[in-house]
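Quick one: sequence plus nicotinamide-adenine-dinucleotide SMILES, need structure tokens.
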Amino acid sequence: MSTPTTRIALVTGAGQGIGRAIALRLARDGFDLALADIKPEGLEQVAAEVQALGRKSQVQRCDVSDRSQVFDAVAQAREHLGRLDVMINNAGIAQVAPLLDARPEDVQRILGINLQGVLWGIQAAAEAFKAQQGGGKIINACSIAGHEGYPLLGIYCATKFAVRALTQAAAKELAHAGITVNSYCPGVVGTDMWVEIDRRMAEVTGARLGESYDRFVGNIALGRAETPDDVAAFVSYLSSPDANYMTGQSVMIDGGLVYR
Ligand SMILES: NC(=O)c1ccc[n+]([C@@H]2O[C@H](COP(=O)([O-])OP(=O)(O)OC[C@H]3O[C@@H](n4cnc5c(N)ncnc54)[C@H](O)[C@@H]3O)[C@@H](O)[C@H]2O)c1
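Reply:
Sure thing.
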């Protein structure tokens, strides 16, 4: 069988923030991109940006909490772009609230997206990789919050600890098929997610707007907030043959904030 020259990656939550940066970085690395998001607005623009870099792109609306939609996204990617080499389970949401206020509907919503969304992505990608008979990389969005519990972010942290567990278990279950599974663990990235975290922390604690963000950033050894491109650079490595011997790891890329 001839080795395909163009690799294909699917990124969930690709319409903005870290997902967008990963898509553009992988396009620069020579990937064609399948772009999935629950919100269609940003997707077309990211698709155009990928094409402007000379790569193919394909977009689809997909709610990662719905197993059938995730399987469909993988099927569509393979149909339109030919195959799948890298699955990036990036989509996620945050919630800011004291643990004692958590209600079943909130917990179920975040578990559905951050935990089950990653699980469905692992399943769909593994099925596709096995059908292609060889290799494949699964890369999940974890977090410093997957290594450390933070006040007011307890349920979010629980979902990211769970992503770390899934990453380890999937790596062990899928190694025999030549599939690797790893996670990236960003720190404080200046995306809409942190705008919302900061706004909610202000609401809950009485802090001024920007104060919680500044406090977190103030603890970063390298002295600045993380950019989506900082994360994308590491995901570029995880997606490359240089990472072929790495599996089951959830690695901090946080400018020096949480040390494990
Ligand atoms: N921003 C940070 O500081 C930070 C730190 C660590 C980890 N992360 C993780 O990185 C990932 C991306 O975060 P971000 O900062 O880019 O967030 P963001 O809110 O800017 O973007 C998230 C994207 O995911 C999409 N999305 C949300 N729910 C979805 C669903 N059910 N199905 C499909 N798409 C959905 C959104 O529409 C959005 O386009 C998340 O998993 C997040 O937990 C972010």
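The pocket of nicotinamide-adenine-dinucleotide is lined by residues 12-13, 15-19, 37-39, 42, 62-65, 90-93, 113, 141, 143, 186, 188-189, 191-194 (CB under 6 Å). The chain is about 45% helix and 15% strand.
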